[in-house]
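re: the backbone from monday

yeah here it is again, tokenized this time
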């Protein structure tokens, strides 16, 4: 069958179809034989027949045989249409447009090659395929358009895999940026907390020192009350002065705290931390925009 351009698979399919056609042909020939046998058994019971009787029997036999042959030809044509329907349906899945050349169906040389193949190789191939299952029809013309379609499908799959990998990379970068932002915010919070604790500790120490001073002055004042009335006036003035000083120091501490907060905001560490947070926020916005472009549409 190499003369017909068949590969091994197509050759097996051709053999399967020839086997099917042969079984239908054998069945129809048996039916025709039975028509003759029935005529012999039912009509040929006398020794002599007139011309009219012979003509009547032959006409009846002709009608029966004609009907059987016509039925077989019609059934063969319809079967071929179903076979073509299967082939065309499979070809459409690969965007192929099959065409047939009707003139080749009467090519005597090709018909003789098919007949020769049926006589020689058909029986051997028939024995080899008795125990094998019948596969579905494969699409015709494995090369050409089908090969290009397979390459295009492979290219699209490869491109899709690259896009998926790129999307996973962007998602990883986005998660990394979010982690960096979270770490930066936590570090800034810890830094403010440490500096705040240091400021509170310094203020608390200074207030404690002032309280100790006030307590000492108060103790001196009480001791001075027992010694001299003149000293009492001085002690009162000193106490008032100390209270004023305490208020002044507390006010200075409040101003110092505000100034310290202002200076901290102007420090390089604060500016760097703020710049890092600003850059991370911009990176996150850019990554979100890029992720929106790669999201598959419904």
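seq for it, each position gets an aa:
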């Amino acid at each position: 069958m190499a003369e017909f351009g068949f590969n091994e698979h197509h050759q097996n399919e051709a053999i399967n179809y020839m086997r099917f056609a042969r079984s239908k042909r054998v069945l129809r020939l048996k039916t025709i034989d039975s028509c003759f046998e029935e005529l012999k058994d039912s009509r040929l019971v006398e020794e002599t027949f007139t011309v009219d009787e012979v003509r009547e029997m032959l006409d009846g036999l002709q009608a029966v045989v004609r009907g059987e042959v016509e039925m077989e030809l019609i059934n063969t044509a319809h079967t071929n249409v179903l076979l073509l329907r299967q082939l065309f349906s499979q070809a459409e899945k690969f965007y192929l447009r099959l065409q047939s050349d009707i003139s080749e169906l009467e090519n005597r040389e090709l018909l003789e090659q098919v007949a020769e193949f049926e006589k020689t190789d058909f029986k051997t191939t028939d024995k080899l395929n008795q125990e094998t299952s019948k596969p579905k029809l494969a699409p015709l013309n494995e090369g050409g358009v089908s090969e290009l379609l397979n390459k295009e499908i492979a290219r699209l799959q490869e491109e899709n895999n690259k896009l998926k990998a790129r999307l996973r990379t962007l998602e990883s970068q986005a998660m990394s940026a979010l982690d960096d932002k979270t770490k930066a915010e936590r570090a800034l919070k810890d830094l403010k907390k440490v500096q705040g604790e240091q400021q509170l500790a310094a203020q608390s120490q200074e207030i404690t020192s002032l309280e100790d001073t006030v307590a000492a002055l108060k103790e001196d004042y009480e001791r001075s009350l027992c010694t001299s009335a003149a000293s009492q006036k001085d002690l009162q003035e000193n106490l008032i002065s100390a209270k004023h000083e305490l208020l002044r120091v507390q006010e200075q501490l409040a101003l110092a705290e505000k100034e310290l907060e202002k200076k901290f905001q102007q420090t390089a560490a604060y500016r760097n931390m703020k710049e890092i947070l600003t850059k991370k926020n911009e990176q996150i916005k850019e990554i979100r925009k890029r992720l929106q472009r790669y999201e598959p549409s419904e």
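The two ends are 50 Å apart (CA to CA). Helices lie at 8-42, 51-93, 108-128, 145-227, 229-266, 268-294.
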